[in-house]
């Protein structure tokens, strides 16, 4: 069925941050989609037509779009729910991500679960998986998978997602399964009570001895709205970086986040002159067989949001990144300097 996506001129939604806290997320983009009514749907009601043309969303959400006047004929007039459409008519639909997970449909997927109990999930997110639906990625996301995984997800904001990873960043993610856990995890992340560590492969020779504390504010790049940057007046952002191994061409580092700004690790390493391998948005280049940004959320330490039990999770470096590290002539032996 013919359709076309058009930018509305709104501020673009950025990819999920390195470990972006939800409060830091930029305003979502409104996607304007043009759809043509196919012959098979001739004389059908608008609500039935939308259910076929925009299958990524629940019927409840689509009915709300109609009520809000977000579905119009191409001429610009809003369409009523009971209106019957003719084949060939063109509709303009404004798709707006909502704060409630019920706007999206459940889609069963194989989740790699490191831990699960009544209140908490820890997910091993592979590179390539989008965390939350947004313009251009309305289906096949982790949120869709969570809605299929357990019934309670539909009653939680964002299906229990309390922080995010970029599509091309792999690693461990926390997900709440109850409202009590979600609220507690949000408070804990805001209070810096969740210890988050990453492994990253960066370009260039690292010249700093010992740990490096990077404390530079991050905001939107005024020259490129798709990027973040170190800017005066940005939000405080602090990262501890430790060299694990290196040579003249590449450096393997461990990064500990103290804040969770969008793209924080990527921005801080780039401004130091060491962009991540394959992170083209921030100056990196594909190398050593790696085509996705060389960043992996390797470890989480926290207290259980409900029972207060100490928890620690680690997920080893995935094969694609491990192979790139070896091809660069480096070794990973854990989160401590070689």
Structure write-up:
With 338 residues, the protein is α+β, with helices and mostly antiparallel strands. 16% of the residues lie in helices and 26% in strands. The chain is built from 6 helices and 15 strands. The chain has helices at 46-53, 59-67, 142-149, 179-190, 264-271, 319-327, and strands spanning 3-7, 31-36, 71-73, 90-95, 113-116, 120-125, 170-176, 195-203, 211-215, 218-220, 228-230, 238-246, 250-257, 295-303, 310-314. Strands 5, 6, 7, 8, 9, 12, 13, 14 and 15 form a 9-stranded mixed β-sheet that branches. A 4-stranded antiparallel β-sheet has the order 1-2-4-3, with no helix packed on it. The chain has a two-stranded antiparallel ribbon with strand order 10-11. 40% of the residues are buried. Mean pLDDT is 87; it is low at 1-20 and 23-28.
Radius of gyration: 22 Å
Distance between the termini: 56 Å
**What does the overall shape look like?**
globular
Strand content: 25-35%
User: Total helix count?
Assistant: 6
Q: Which class best fits the helix and strand makeup?
A: alpha+beta
Helix content: 10-25%
| H/E element order | EEHHEEEEHEHEEEEEEHEEH
Q: Main β-sheet, in a few words? A: 9 strands, mixed
**How confident overall, as mean pLDDT?**
87
Q: pLDDT below 50 for ≥5 consecutive residues: which ranges?
A: 1-20, 23-28
Question: How many strand elements?
Answer: 15
């Amino acid at each position: 069925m013919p359709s076309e996506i058009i930018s509305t001129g709104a501020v673009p939604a950025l990819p999920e941050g390195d470990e972006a806290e939800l409060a830091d997320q930029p305003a979502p983009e409104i996607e304007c989609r043009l759809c043509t009514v196919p012959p098979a749907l001739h004389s059908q009601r608008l609500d039935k037509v939308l259910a076929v043309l925009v299958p990524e969303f629940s019927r409840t959400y689509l009915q709300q779009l109609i009520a809000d006047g977000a579905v119009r004929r191409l001429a610009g007039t809003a369409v009523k729910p009971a209106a019957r459409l003719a084949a060939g008519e063109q509709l303009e639909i404004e798709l707006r991500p909502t704060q409630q997970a019920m706007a999206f449909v459940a889609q069963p997927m194989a989740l790699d679960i490191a831990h699960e109990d009544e209140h908490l999930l820890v997910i091993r997110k592979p590179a390539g998986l989008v965390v939350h639906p947004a313009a251009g990625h309305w289906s096949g996301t982790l949120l869709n998978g969570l809605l299929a995984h357990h019934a309670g997800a539909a009653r939680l904001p964002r299906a229990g997602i309390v922080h995010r990873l970029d599509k091309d960043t792999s690693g461990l993610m926390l997900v709440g399964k109850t409202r009590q856990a979600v609220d507690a995890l949000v408070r804990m992340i805001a209070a810096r009570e969740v210890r988050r560590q990453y492994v990253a492969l960066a370009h260039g020779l690292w010249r700093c001895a010992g740990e490096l504390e990077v404390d530079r504010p991050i905001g939107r790049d005024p020259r490129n709205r798709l990027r973040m940057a170190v800017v005066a007046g940005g939000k405080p952002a602090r990262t501890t970086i430790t060299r694990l191994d290196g040579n003249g061409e590449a450096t393997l580092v461990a990064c500990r986040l103290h804040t969770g700004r969008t793209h924080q690790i990527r921005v801080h390493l780039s401004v130091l002159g060491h962009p991540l391998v394959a992170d083209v948005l921030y100056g990196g280049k594909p190398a050593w067989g790696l085509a996705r940004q060389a960043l992996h959320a390797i470890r989480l330490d926290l207290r259980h949001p409900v029972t207060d039990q100490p928890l620690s999770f680690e997920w080893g470096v995935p094969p694609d990144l491990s192979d790139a590290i070896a091809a660069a002539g480096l070794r990973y032996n854990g989160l401590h300097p070689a």
